[in-house]
């Protein structure tokens, strides 16, 4: 049967890239994008778009009935830094949004669902270096708490209702097509915009705050690969550790300086530092490698080169 794909939260950082890749693969009419934001005119030519609040079960039901998706990517969420400002709203969107989507998927016999977790599921007592798949998880942000609870529900819905949910713990994601949506790792995207605009950047994290990161193309590859893997390959039904590269702001700035001489960085630390310090610096993703052949394509050097090239081509800084 031909696949019909529905992306929820398609206008964000991940959804923008994911929609483009899936539309290339499956044809634009077979990928329905949706978001709480109204449609932007120039995007309507790219394929079907529905304005939809994932918290609205009746509206969700209507969209599932009309489009009959076989695969659903549920990306709508409130990210770490924003959810710390609006904890109750963040919890409600991240949990109730997930329940309404999972329930609609069961009602409409959707074959597969992708739901992303995050490195935010780890906490201060988690081993920070090469963080194992299974270890102490004591997140202390509302975002991390909602993602850890969500992971438990992924496994629960699979065991209890047979819903085939696939999930990975995204590290900080670095892409050029869309701006980041209020996460703690946003500096690693902003830094490229400012490098091109003014050849300097003021960073909100300390220079030695190492965090796991990934270039967006790798994240999209992992997202589609895990969702399309044969069910026998998926042995972890909560969420897989996933690793691309790890660096701190100083190391990133040195690579930008190497590729863009004259670039300078200074630091003005804010509340996001505390969140970053509760997260791992590097991740052990051997289960993803073994189970569904995960392998990233980008390292620090190639990611920096690609970000500078693509943002320049978009006219940033000119
Ligand atoms: N970007 C990262 O670095 C990162 C890291 C780890 C995990 N994740 C996870 O990946 C997923 C996508 O993240 P992102 O970076 O694209 O986030 P984002 O904030 O850029 O995009 C989320 C989208 O969801 C939409 N949305 C918000 N509330 C909605 C609602 N009620 N109904 C429908 N749509 C709604 C927003 O308008 C936005 O376009 C999220 O689950 C996030 O937690 C992202």
Secondary structure blueprint with pairings:
Elements: E1 5-8, H1 13-26, E2 31-35, H2 41-44, E3 49-51, H3 57-67, E4 71-74, H4 80-85, H5 87-107, E5 112-114, E6 117-118, H6 142-161, E7 165-166, E8 168-170, E9 172-174, H7 187-198, E10 200-203, E11 211-215, H8 216-228, E12 240-241, E13 245-247, H9 249-259, E14 264-267, H10 272-277, H11 286-292, H12 300-313
Parallel strand pairs: 1-2, 1-4, 2-3, 4-5, 5-7, 6-8, 8-12, 9-11, 10-14
Antiparallel strand pairs: 11-13
The protein binds nicotinamide-adenine-dinucleotide.
If strands are numbered along the chain, what order do they take across the biggest sheet? Answer: 3-2-1-4-5-7
Average the pLDDT over all residues and give the rounded result. Answer: 96
The chain-level structural class is alpha/beta
Low-confidence stretches: none
Share of residues in strands = 5-15%
Q: Give the radius of gyration.
A: 19 Å
The total count of strands amounts to 14
- In CATH terms, the superfamily of the largest domain is NAD(P)-binding Rossmann-like Domain
Tell me the major beta sheet: 6 strands, parallel
What is the helix content? 40-55%
Secondary-structure element series: EHEHEHEHHEEHEEEHEEHEEHEHHH
Q: Return the CATH architecture of the largest domain.
A: 3-Layer(aba) Sandwich
N- and C-termini, Cα separation: 47 Å
């Amino acid at each position: 049967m031909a696949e019909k794909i529905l992306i929820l939260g398609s206008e964000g950082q991940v959804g923008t890239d994911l929609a483009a890749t899936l539309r290339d693969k499956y044809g634009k009419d077979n990928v329905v994008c949706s978001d709480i934001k109204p449609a932007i005119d120039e995007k309507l030519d790219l394929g079907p778009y529905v304005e939809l609040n994932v918290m609205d079960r009746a509206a969700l039901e209507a969209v599932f009935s009309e489009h009959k998706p076989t695969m659903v990517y549920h990306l709508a969420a409130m990210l770490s830094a924003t959810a710390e400002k609006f904890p109750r709203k963040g919890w409600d969107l991240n949990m109730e949004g997930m329940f309404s989507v999972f329930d609609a998927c069961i009602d409409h016999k959707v074959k597969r669902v992708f739901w992303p977790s995050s490195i935010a599921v780890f906490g201060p007592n988690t081993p920070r270096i090469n963080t194992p798949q299974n270890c102490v998880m004591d997140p202390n942000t509302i975002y991390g708490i909602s993602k850890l609870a969500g992971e438990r529900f992924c496994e629960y819905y699979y065991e209890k209702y047979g819903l085939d949910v696939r999930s990975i713990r995204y590290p900080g994601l670095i892409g050029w097509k869309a701006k980041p949506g209020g996460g703690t790792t946003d500096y690693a995207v902003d830094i490229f915009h400012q490098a091109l605009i003014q050849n300097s950047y003021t960073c909100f994290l300390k220079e030695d705050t190492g965090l796991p990161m990934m270039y967006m193309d790798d994240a999209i590859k992992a997202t589609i690969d895990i969702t399309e893997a044969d069910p026998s390959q998926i042995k972890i039904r909560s969420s897989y550790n996933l690793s691309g590269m790890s660096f701190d702001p100083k190391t990133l700035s040195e690579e930008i300086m190497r590729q863009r001489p004259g670039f300078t960085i200074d630091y003005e630390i804010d509340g996001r530092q505390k969140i970053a310090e509760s997260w791992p610096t590097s991740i052990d993703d051997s289960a993803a490698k073994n189970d569904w052949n995960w392998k990233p394509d980008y390292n620090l050097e190639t990611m920096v080169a690609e970000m500078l090239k693509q943002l320049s081509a978009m006219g940033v800084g000119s």
